[in-house]
């Protein structure tokens, strides 16, 4: 008997409740990493066919069978539903290489509205009409009382709009536990004025559609002012007015959970702001402008508002940036990043965009067109310019530099095309700045046409309190003004690490 116990695999010596927990974790990971190809067997079936003890344990755990998966055969899906008994259901379906028979388990699961906790549906190749109209009950108003996550993606935009209306989100109990709402190309129809629905438990809202459709939907709901908001427009934006309207709609949708008051009474104060122009695809020259703002509100420090849209050459990015300042409070802003900003910013434009921000500590720039005007601004002074005043004033005996709290300046892809003259001008500006509000750190990374002698010119200037760092990449020859760039991948791969450091 002792020899028999010694030969038992260590995992079978675990208590049943611990082994069950491992089963659930394995099943969850297998579901989240599932291939687009049909798997021969779901993980729950594999676990139940190892040995008799594992089978008994798996069959006793109803939660193990409560994830319908994406590409399970209809017979297996039906069997899983029966074994899940009364456990909360996770319903996943992707209309990719699927047949009408594959819909049966998903339809059966959605019909059990009292048990559905998560819904994730990807509509790629429609069955002549939106797959959601086939899967979904005729009217889900008031259904799904325990639903926590709703994720619907409609990749085929030629198919009709979804069959439900925005007012459906006001169903009794539907919104009580909803924490994640992700609608991609599947926003409800506008069915006229109605009282906005307060999604009281929402933590993350992601909307991907046309600007008008997103604005309409935002006016139909209200969400806690602590929720993360991710808005992605799928059509080129021609004017900054569109961005201003979306920011206004986002702001109005955010409400205090206790008072349900709009943000006018609890301003959205940005702590960190990032503008970035990103390639939409490595195979084309189109790009999208992405605006990320981290909100500070009471004890909330990590709330994120993201707005992304295809970058139109007819739209003024500087005007777009100014819309952010109009609709969001920048008075406590600490970090500003311009990543791959393609427009030149003069000193006056820096002042107009960001005014005299008293709390700004870090500025990071990752394109040669934006930093030159900033260097000029760093040694200029203002006589008490306020956030609401974009005009400049003449220096006086009480003048102070712009951005008086600024301590760190990060320059990536700066162009030292004028060699020694460029570095000498940088030294002169920083020395002038050091007389009243010295910088603590200057960081140079992947700069074009820089040589060690230029770095040494800045370092040996011994500007009081300034620490200068350089990645020691010399004579980087990249044409940042062209649409094609052999070093683009490296630039974007390292961007987030560089920005967050």
From TrEMBL:
Region of interest called Disordered, as start-end residue ranges on this chain: 479-501
Organism name: Ephemerocybe angulata
Name of protein: F-box domain-containing protein
Domain of life: Eukaryota
């Amino acid at each position: 008997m002792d020899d028999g116990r010694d030969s038992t695999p260590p995992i079978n010596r675990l208590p049943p409740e611990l082994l069950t927990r491992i089963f659930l974790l394995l099943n969850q990971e297998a579901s989240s990493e599932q291939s687009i190809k049909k798997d021969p067997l779901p993980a729950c079936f594999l676990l139940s066919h190892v040995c008799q003890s594992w089978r008994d344990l798996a069959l006793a755990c109803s939660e193990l069978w409560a994830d319908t998966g994406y590409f399970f055969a209809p017979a297996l899906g039906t069997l899983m539903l029966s074994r899940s008994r009364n456990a909360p259901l996770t319903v996943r379906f992707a209309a990719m290489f699927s047949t009408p028979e594959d819909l049966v388990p998903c339809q059966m699961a959605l019909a059990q509205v009292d048990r559905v906790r998560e819904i994730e549906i990807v509509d790629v190749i429609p069955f002549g009409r939106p797959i959601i109209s086939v899967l979904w009950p005729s009217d889900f108003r008031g259904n799904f009382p325990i639903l926590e996550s709703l994720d619907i993606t409609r990749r085929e935009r030629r198919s009709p709009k979804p069959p439900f209306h925005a007012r459906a989100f006001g169903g009794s109990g539907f919104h009580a536990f909803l924490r994640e709402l992700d609608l991609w190309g599947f926003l409800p129809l506008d069915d006229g004025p109605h009282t906005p629905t307060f999604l009281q438990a929402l933590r993350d809202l992601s909307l991907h559609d046309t600007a008008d459709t997103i604005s309409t939907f935002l006016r139909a709901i209200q969400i806690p002012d602590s929720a993360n908001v991710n808005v992605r427009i799928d059509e080129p934006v021609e004017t900054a007015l569109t961005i201003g309207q979306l920011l206004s709609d986002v702001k109005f949708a955010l409400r205090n959970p206790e008072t349900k008051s709009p943000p006018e009474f609890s301003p959205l104060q940005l702590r960190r702001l990032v503008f970035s122009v990103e390639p939409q695809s490595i195979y084309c020259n189109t790009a999208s402008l992405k605006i990320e703002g981290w909100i500070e509100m009471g004890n909330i420090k990590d709330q994120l508002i993201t707005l992304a849209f295809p970058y139109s050459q007819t739209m003024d990015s500087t005007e777009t940036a100014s819309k952010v300042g109009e609709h969001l409070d920048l008075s406590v802003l600490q970090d500003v990043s311009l990543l791959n900003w393609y427009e030149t910013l003069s000193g006056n434009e820096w002042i107009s965009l960001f005014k005299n921000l008293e709390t700004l500590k870090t500025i990071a720039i990752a394109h040669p067109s934006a930093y030159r005007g900033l260097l000029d601004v760093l040694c200029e002074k203002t006589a008490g310019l306020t956030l609401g005043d974009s005009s400049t004033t003449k220096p006086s005996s009480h003048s102070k530099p712009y951005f008086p709290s600024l301590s760190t300046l990060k320059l990536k892809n700066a162009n030292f095309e004028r060699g020694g003259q460029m570095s000498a001008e940088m030294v002169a500006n920083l020395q002038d700045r050091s007389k009243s509000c010295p910088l603590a750190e200057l960081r140079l990374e992947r700069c074009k046409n820089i040589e060690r002698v230029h770095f040494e010119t800045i370092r040996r200037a011994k500007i009081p309190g300034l620490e200068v760092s350089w990645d020691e990449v010399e004579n980087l020859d990249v044409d940042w003004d062209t649409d094609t760039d052999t070093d683009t991948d490296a630039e974007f791969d390292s961007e987030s690490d560089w920005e967050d450091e």
